[in-house]
Amino acid sequence: MLNIIVEIIAVATAITSIYLYGNGWKYSGYFGLFSQFWWVLFTYLNEHTTLYVLCFFMILTHIRNIFKMRANNE
User: Fold this and answer.
1) What is the Cβ-side half-sphere exposure of residue 49, based on CA atoms within 13 angstroms?
2) Of 7, 34, 46, 72, which sits most exposed with the smallest number of CB within 10 A?
3) How many domains does the chain have?
């Protein structure tokens, strides 16, 4: 049951993150990092070890976008 709840939250936050990025919201990178917490937890709970690679690069992408969007909004 916990797996399903985490998966639903991960998917919902990912979709929301894409929506926020598309609208150019300056805090969307932070929301993306929040979303990655759920994806890492999903990966751990379901033992999808190779998915950690994607999570790592998505975390780096969100961090990069935080700096890029901060620079664009100044």
Assistant:
1) 0
2) 72
3) 1
Residue 48 domain boundaries: 2-72
Q: Which long-range contacts (CB under 8 A, 24 or more apart) does 24-30 make?
A: 24/69, 26/69, 26/70, 26/72, 26/73, 28/65, 28/69, 29/62, 29/63, 29/65, 29/66, 29/69, 30/62, 30/66
Q: Is 0.90 topped by the overall pTM?
A: no
Q: How far apart are CA 31 and CA 50, in angstroms?
A: 23
Rounded CA-CA distance 1/19 in Å is: 27
Q: What is the pLDDT along the chain (74 residues), one digit of tens a residue?
A: 999 999 999 999 999 999 999 998 999 999 999 999 999 999 999 999 999 999 999 999 999 999 998 888 76
